[in-house]
Amino acid sequence: MAKRDYYETLGVAKGASADEIKKAYRKKAKELHPDRNSDNPDAEAQFKEVNEAYDVLKDGDKKAAYDRFGHAAFDGGMGGARGGPRGGQQGDFASAFSDVFDDLFGDFMGGGRSGGARSRAARGSDLRYNLRLTLEEAYAGLQKTINVPTSVQCTACDGTGAEGGAEPVTCPTCSGMGKVRAQQGFFTVERTCPTCSGLGQIVQNPCKQCHGQGRVERDRSLSVNIPAGVETGTRIRLGGEGEAGMRGGPPGDLYIFIEVAKHKIFEREATNLYCRVPVSMTKASLGGDIEVPTIDGGRSRVKIPEGSQSGRQMRLRGKGMPALRGGTHGDMFIELAVETPVNLTARQKDLLREFEDLSEDNNPESKSFFSSVKGFWDSMKG
């Protein structure tokens, strides 16, 4: 079977520039790479064909020979260019593949390199601090000092990790790239350099204080502004207050996670507060005024309507929690719980029995319920 024209294989014109050829190869190699075409049995062969074409057309001498003699330039019959593909075999895959390795695998391996040495320093880790507040503190907001165990920059070496603050030197294993490559068949595998752990540099004389890390463990005291209205799950970010970076690298961030403790009187739902208030049977029957507490430490007078039942709610507008972002406040809801008296004296019992005898028409809900029950039993008998 006749071998396809190399220009046709890459999908470019014969007069294409080196950049156009490289761009076309990058596109074809991405499309046909076996790892992306596990369901296509022909992908590997096509991938090899594309590599072979690019290995010739990327080289000026080989390209000139191919343009003049075609495939015969490399089959030994025309005295063609040396080092080209022979007998229809694949080209120098390692050489061709290396030119666009980072472009092909950038999305798999965190992006290609920028061409220079890797950053000398690694960013510090982000830290989490759990802060527990009372509901009153969450209502008012506050300035709070917290102690955070973390890593800070070593002052003995100014964060370089080297004794006396000396600059690190380029890693001899990876030549400052932070990664090493290994050839496996026609694949080039890239791994983090084991000598410098990906930093691209090493410390020849480590600092005695930080042992070459450029940072030491220490507790830090931080003053944190807690805004009014925070609730459980609220996250506050303090940029640059996390763990110090390796060898002078930028610090991470500190994230404060808020937990608001349960309250003995109030229950919270977003910006609204709920307060269950017990009232006596007589107060609920006759009506009257009661005083209820508010979250700001004050008191509010609430009028109980005559004949109130358990579960009845009344609203105090604007007496709830402040919104975290905005000047509005939620509401406070009073829920009545009519309390049945206990530990009655003989006189109280006699009065209640007398009241019961006189209150046949004062319990409409009970009258309606038992009327429905009687109708249910009668229907069952029928």
Explained architecture:
This protein is elongated. Residues 77-82, 86-96 and 106-119 have low confidence and may be disordered. It has 10 helices and 15 strands. It has 5 domains: 6-105, DnaJ domain (Helix Hairpins), CATH 1.10.287.110; 114-163 and 206-261, Urease metallochaperone UreE, N-terminal domain (HSP40/DNAj peptide-binding domain), CATH 2.60.260.20; 169-202, no CATH class; 266-339, HSP40/DNAj peptide-binding domain (Sandwich); 346-381, no CATH class. It has helices spanning 6-10, 18-32, 43-57, 60-69, 93-99, 101-105, 135-140, 281-286, 346-358, 364-381; strands at residues 127-133, 142-153, 169-170, 179-184, 187-192, 201-202, 215-226, 235-238, 254-260, 266-269, 272-280, 288-293, 299-304, 313-316, 332-339. A 4-stranded mixed sheet has the order 10-11-15-14. A 3-stranded mixed sheet has the order 1-9-8. Strands 2-7 form a two-stranded antiparallel sheet. With 382 residues, the protein is α+β, with helices and mostly antiparallel strands. Strand 12 (288-293) and strand 13 (299-304) form a beta hairpin.
